[in-house]
Amino acid sequence: KKQFAVIGLGRFGTSVATTLAQLGYDVLAVDSDEARVEELAEVATHAVQADATDIEVLKQLGIRNFDVVVVSIGHNMEASILVTLILKEMGVKQVIAKAGSELHSRVLKRVGADRVVFPERDMGARVAHNLVASNIIDYIELAPNYSLLEITPPCEMFDKTIRELNLRTDYGINVLAIKRGNEIKVSPGADDVIKKGDILVVVGENGDLKQLEEE
Amino acid sequence: KKQFAVIGLGRFGTSVATTLAQLGYDVLAVDSDEARVEELAEVATHAVQADATDIEVLKQLGIRNFDVVVVSIGHNMEASILVTLILKEMGVKQVIAKAGSELHSRVLKRVGADRVVFPERDMGARVAHNLVASNIIDYIELAPNYSLLEITPPCEMFDKTIRELNLRTDYGINVLAIKRGNEIKVSPGADDVIKKGDILVVVGENGDLKQLEEE
Ligand SMILES: Nc1ncnc2c1ncn2[C@@H]1O[C@H](COP(=O)(O)OP(=O)(O)OP(=O)(O)O)[C@@H](O)[C@H]1O
Ligand SMILES: Nc1ncnc2c1ncn2[C@@H]1O[C@H](COP(=O)(O)OP(=O)(O)OP(=O)(O)O)[C@@H](O)[C@H]1O
Fold this sequence. Notes:
By secondary structure, the first copy, chain A, is an alpha/beta fold. Chain A has nine helices and 13 strands. Chain A has a six-stranded parallel sheet with strand order 3-2-1-4-5-6, with helices on both faces. Chain A has a five-stranded antiparallel sheet with strand order 7-8-13-10-11. In chain A, strand 1 (3-7), helix 1 (11-22) and strand 2 form a beta-alpha-beta unit. The longest helix of chain A is centred in the middle third of the chain and has 14 residues, at 77-90. The first copy, chain A, starts with a strand and ends in a 5-residue tail after the last helix. The mean pLDDT of chain A is 89. The interface between A and B is large, with 59 and 56 residues.
């Protein structure tokens, strides 16, 4: 089973560590701030206060033996870069680093980050897309020109079946699920009816999906 | 056309404002920090330095006339809550607020936030899921227990058709698309073949999806 370490217990790092622990994995959580270490003490396998730019401390923690280390130090760009460099030089197989900007990301890649993530930037784009089309509840770009939307159906769809609406043949749209209240019906059938108040989870090409959007 | 304001130009707020502008909408960008306002000056329709907890300033900006205001003040919980309260009391139709914790989120809802977002928390969960199953490239939870994954297919699927694999009937999994190199085939047919090197975009219940994951 893979062993994980998360360095930097801000909101993102805390969420990574907590989710990994919930999925049943061993997680070493590290932060220079005692209070943040305390918060993860019950959740992580080990929670340690340390300045991660200190090579000696990292050696003592045996960090080179971890399969994956997440460097989620946000505002201190220098520390984020140094820690990433040190980890790769020590031979850690996979280092995932959080970046706050394009420039930060380029430096992280240069010092060996295997992967860079942009939580705030990516979520900002998603929120913006779904603010623009009011009936879009969630928007996720799966590939250039191909997206997943959660939408409230336009009124011309009320009380019609999926077959009647011909969504796949006429619109090129695949209805993955219908959410109604607290229920979710996955892979609905051709005779399922769409009702006012439903939330449809749909996928298709962006041009086709635009037909479902309401201003 | 809707008019948007973004208060708090951290990484998330900047991304929301930038994306809205790219989508062709008018955006008012507000921050108490001059430097951050400067960075958005070319991007936003208007970029203003202001302390958003100051009701007089918000009135001068005509903020009550905006359709949607995003409150993306992160670490200053008090400011984030006060601004949200003020906006709702002034009659702004839709206020989206960024929360840093569950507690923060509950207070925001109490003071009237129409929607609360958790960029770092949600992204942390996504990254954790895809670190755990090495062939998961992206993971998005669409609803409790129902997710979308982008995965590299396990080798037992190579050179078999979707029909042969019986993914929907046997596994309860819906293959939305097959990405091969730069091509993406959306809503593949029953006779489409899965090849080594493909990326499959699949949806289904979490228990069913687990069968596709490789350690
Ligand atoms: N040298 C270091 N060693 C260990 N931890 C560090 C070091 N430098 C910063 N940290 C920790 O990294 C954590 C995250 O940093 P910070 O809060 O600046 O990032 P952030 O991007 O705002 O986080 P998030 O957006 O995920 O909440 C902090 O808890 C901080 O104490
Ligand atoms: N009262 C206020 N009025 C206007 N802007 C404010 C106010 N208080 C804070 N801000 C601004 O909000 C912005 C975002 O806040 P902060 O950087 O603490 O959040 P954050 O959650 O770390 O951001 P992100 O994670 O999106 O980068 C900052 O640029 C800050 O200047």
